[in-house]
Design brief:
320 residues; 8-stranded mixed β-sheet; 36% helix; binds N,N-dimethyl-L-histidine; EgtD_Methyltrsf_superfamily; MeTrfase_dom; EC 2.1.1.44; SAM-dependent_MTases_sf; transferase
Length: 320
């Protein structure tokens, strides 16, 4: 380095500082556990898209088929004048099926997502395809208090939360989200996709695909920690573990230490015994009646239900 030129460590972004703080907390608790939201950087989001197309991963194609077959009936529950709020909107692939079944002049579409650039790009594409549709994107974390744009006169507000994303919430988080949604959708309702309890072999295969895409998705949490935070751990030190836990009716994903090892993060060292895990995700599976009871406690009145011939996935209408 030339004399007089000072080298400074690049400053971590606020997001990286939060990741570091959450990972320290995750590694310090017993058992070790981190939020699944850290799967979704660019690589993780791409891997998740690949998961959705895997032969073993039935939820995406089953829900898409339900939306394709019943979009008109689902949209009929909304009524003609609506503010349609999509929670965690992403690429807007599923909501397009609903929008195609609705007259656009009565719809104010409010897609909400925490990732601004992604959301705005998806909205630009939608605006080209649906020139008459009023689109008001909202960059926000829908699980936290937020302010929705006012509803147009004579409209009611309805929500859309597809993908069984509620399955990744803890029961307390699911309850908190449903209460928040019931309050802000009062007078309207919520259309929500949930993954149903089923044969454990089908579930096991969906989270242990033959190509190893789910394993790479799971491992991405630690790969991110290595790339973004300079975390150090032996290569091959962790393996993907996903299994159905019938007591909690959930798939659990973990990263399991293949040997006794030390993970270094900043100036801290965290010990893993052989077989010890970092718990990375829950994916809760529901029965229709169990989920309706949960929704009812949060302030909804259960309405129509659409499900596939195998009863693997369901889309529920809940009046708020
Ligand atoms: C986003 N979420 C509903 C997926 C699920 O099935 O729980 C995430 C996922 N994890 C592993 N495969 C897919």
């Amino acid at each position: 380095m030339k004399p007089g030129i000072e080298w400074r460590q690049p400053r971590a972004s606020a997001e990286q500082r939060q990741f570091a703080a959450d990972l320290h907390a995750a590694l310090a608790r017993a058992p070790k556990a981190i939020s699944p939201k850290y799967f979704y950087d660019e690589t993780g989001s791409r891997l998740f898209e690949q998961i959705c197309d895997l032969p073993e991963y039935y939820p995406t194609r089953t829900e898409l088929a339900l939306l394709q077959a019943h979009a008109a009936d689902m949209a009929a529950q909304f009524g003609p004048q609506v503010q349609l709020v999509e929670y965690g909107a992403g690429a807007l692939r599923k909501v397009r099926l609903l929008l195609d079944a609705m007259p656009h002049d009565g719809v104010q579409f409010v897609p909400m997502d925490i990732s601004g650039p992604h959301l705005l790009a998806a909205c630009d594409g939608l605006a080209v395809d649906c020139p008459g549709l009023a689109i008001q994107p909202l960059v926000a974390d829908f699980t936290r208090p937020h302010t929705l744009p006012p509803c147009a006169d004579g409209s009611r507000r309805v929500g859309f939360f597809p993908g069984s994303s509620i399955g990744n919430f803890t029961p307390a988080e699911a309850d908190a989200f449903l209460r928040l949604a019931a309050a802000e959708l009062k007078g309207g309702g919520l259309l929500i996709g949930i993954d149903l309890v089923k044969d454990a072999h089908v579930l096991h295969a969906a989270y242990n695909d033959a190509r190893g895409v789910t394993a790479a998705f799971n491992m991405n949490v630690l790969e991110r920690a290595r790339a973004e935070l300079g975390a150090e751990f032996p290569s091959g030190g962790f393996e993907h573990l996903a299994f159905y836990n019938p007591a909690y009716r959930r798939i659990e994903m973990h990263l399991r230490a293949t040997q006794p090892l030390v993970l270094r993060l900043g100036d801290q060292s965290y010990m893993f015994n052989e077989g010890e895990t970092l718990h990375t995700e829950h994916s809760h599976k529901y029965t229709v009646s169990g989920f309706q009871a949960l929704a009812q406690r949060a302030g909804f009145k259960p309405g129509k239900v659409w499900t596939d011939a195998n009863q693997w996935f369901a889309v529920l209408w809940l009046e708020a």
